[in-house]
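Data availability (excerpt). All sequences and predicted C-alpha cell strings are deposited with the supplementary files. A representative entry, Endoribonuclease L-PSP/chorismate mutase-like domain-containing protein, is shown inline so that the format can be inspected without opening the archive.
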Amino acid sequence: MNFDLHFNEIAKNLGFDISEEIKIGGKYTSLIEHNGLAYISGQIPRIGDTVQIIGRVGDEVDLSQAQLAAQISTIRALAILKQHYGSLNIVEKILQMNVFVHCASTFTQHSEVSDGASEVLYKIFGLELGKHTRTSVGANQLPKNASVEINFIIALNSIKNE
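C-alpha cell line:
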C-alpha cells in the first residue's frame, strides 16, 4: 500500500503545500529516530506560518473546529516524517499519540477532539497499522494560542527509504 497517496490527498484537502518545508518554532528538533522509533515533537495546526485554529475549545472554538485542528496537526507531523525519509512507507506502526487540547475548564470532550487525528491515521495507514494508543488532556494554554497540539511515537520499518 502506498501511504503517500492517501497523505497527499488529505494534505491537499486541508490546504497544505506538501512541497513546503515544515518550520519549527524553537530550539529543538521536530524528529528524532532512536532504535527504530521516530519521536515527533508536538505539532500545532499551523499551515505555512499561520496557526489555523486558535483559542480555547469550548469557548471560541467548537468541537468540529478542534477536530479539524487535530487533523491539521496530524498531517503536519506526518509531513515532517515524510520530508525526513522521503516517504510514509517507512511507517511500520503508529504506536502512540498524545493530544493536548487548549480548552475551557468546563470542556470534557477531549477524546472527541482526538478522534479527528485518529481518523486521519486510519485513512492513511488503515485500521491495523494506524491503530494506536492515545492520551487526551486539557491544557490551560498552548504555544501561539493554538487550540490543539499533538506529538507521536511511530515504529519504522527496518528497511528505510533513502
